[in-house]
Amino acid sequence: MDDDVRAREDSAAEEAAAARLGEAAAGLGSEIVRFSRLVTAWRRHAKTDAGAADRVLLAKLVNHGDRRATDLAADALLDLSTVSRQVRSLVERGLVERYPDPEDRRGTLLRATEAGHAAFGEYRRQRDTKLAALLEPWPEEDRAHLVRLMGRLNDDLEQARHARPAHPAPESGETAVKEKDAAA
Fold first, then answer.
1. pLDDT one-digit tens code per residue, 7-60
2. What whole-number distance in Å separates Cα of residue 16 and Cα of residue 111?
3. How far apart, in whole angstroms, are the C-alpha atoms of residue 59 and residue 123?
4. Residue 103 φ/ψ, nearest 5 degrees
5. Pairwise CA distance, residues 37 & 42, whole Å
6. Does position 158 have pLDDT exceeding 90, yes or no?
7. What whole-number distance in Å separates Cα of residue 143 and Cα of residue 128?
8. Residue 116 burial (CB < 10 Å; 0-12/13-18/19+)?
9. Cα separation of 65 and 158, whole Å?
10. Cα(117)–Cα(104) distance, rounded to whole angstroms?
11. Alpha-carbon distance 50 to 1, whole Å?
12. For the residues of 130-161, what is the DSSP string, one character each?
């Protein structure tokens, strides 16, 4: 009898843990959607929002070094045509320069200029000032936990982005209906 009781207790504990994990995932999903909407609204309200693409591309070049446009697009999770247009604007404004790839003279690398580094520094100062104002009333320990946990979440999201999905998503609504009908 002790083994049956222990097995039922273990099963109940596993079910409770699975329910808590599901609740945490649902809560996190809701908060991520809310956070994304608030960040989007914040960016729309910011005077420098027109420079959002500048900030993303300059950040990649300043923080990770010279890149080909194709690699920059992949790193920034943007379409190559979007990156090409934005790079052209950055080059025209003297924030980025092109130079031949020393490993493949047919290719071109992109590099943030001194002015690009300065512009990125200003974007970062503006962002940090706004975030410091938001975090000022928080206890120091909470700030540290937030930064650590956001870093962990971002690392896990990045890793999951590169992992193969266990169950590929249907390509369209029609495919999903066909698969549902086939399963029935």
1. 888 888 999 999 999 999 999 999 999 988 888 787 777 654 556 778 899 999
2. 53
3. 10
4. -85, -25
5. 9
6. no
7. 13
8. buried
9. 19
10. 26
11. 70
12. HHHHHHTTS-HHHHHHHHHHHHHHHHHHHHHH
What is residue 169's predicted lDDT score, i.e. its pLDDT? 55
Digit-coded pLDDT (tens) for 161-172: 888 766 555 554
Distance between CA atoms of 81 and 168, rounded to whole angstroms?
27
The structure tokens listed for 116 are 């690009």
All residues at 6 or more sequence positions from 54 whose CB lies less than 8 Å from its CB, including other chains:
86, 89, 90, 95, 119, 123
List, in sequence order, every residue forming a beta bridge with 111; answer none if it has no partner. Answer: 97
Query: Can you give the length of the chain in residues?
Result: 184
At 96 the three-state DSSP class reads strand
What span, in angstroms and rounded, lies between the C-alpha atoms of 131 and 148?
16
The model's pTM: 0.66
Residue with tokens 């790193």: 75
- What is the rounded CA–CA span in Å between residue 80 and residue 76? 10
Structure tokens at 167: 């169950």
CB 90 within 8 A of CB 57: yes
DSSP string, 42-78: HHHHSGGGGGHHHHHHHHHHHHH--B-HHHHHHHHT-
